[in-house]
Design brief:
The protein has 3 helices and 8 strands. It is α+β, with helices and mostly antiparallel strands and 153 residues long. It has a single domain, classed as Jelly Rolls.
């Protein structure tokens, strides 16, 4: 029997929100799993989901013509995956591949874009969480680039 994982409220992205805010964000949430090697997102497909990673690792990849896929970043448990649902035309800009088995919550983007009129405090709280995730990812990419430049000297 697989160990039970924490409820959605305990994911770092949602931690600290009021129960009614979590309910509004996760109005259509599913638990999903992907085996190692599976694609979670495919560049160009419709972006309808925000994944809250619970376990495993995911590689963000960009296909370079004539060179194939290039890994840009690796995400881990506690991270979020998929921000293209925020901006029209709502299409994924990258591929996301499970490096190892992945467990995640899949949140419907329509719920994420829709609840602000019912919960006016939710929109700024959600925006701040998204900005924090983006900032942390930018910092990781910056550190990876520093290591790359250091290795080349």
């Amino acid at each position: 029997m697989a160990p039970s994982l924490p409820p959605i409220e305990e994911h770092p992205f949602l931690r600290g929100l009021a129960p009614e805010q979590v309910k509004a964000i996760a109005c259509d949430v599913r638990e999903v799993s992907f085996p190692a090697g599976a694609l979670l997102l495919r560049e160009g497909d419709e972006a309808r989901t925000l994944f809250l990673l619970r376990s495993g690792r995911v590689s963000l990849e960009l296909t370079v013509p004539g060179q194939g896929p290039r890994q840009l970043e690796t995400l881990k448990a506690g991270d979020i995956l998929g921000l293209s649902w925020l901006f029209p035309p709502y299409r994924w800009h990258l591929d996301a591949r499970a490096v190892e088995p992945v467990e995640a919550f899949a949140l419907d983007a329509a719920c994420l874009r829709g609840p602000s009129s019912e919960h006016p405090v939710l929109e700024p709280a959600l925006a701040m969480r998204l900005l924090r995730q983006l900032y942390e990812r930018l910092e990781r990419v910056r550190m990876q680039r520093l290591d790359l430049y250091k290795a080349g000297t």
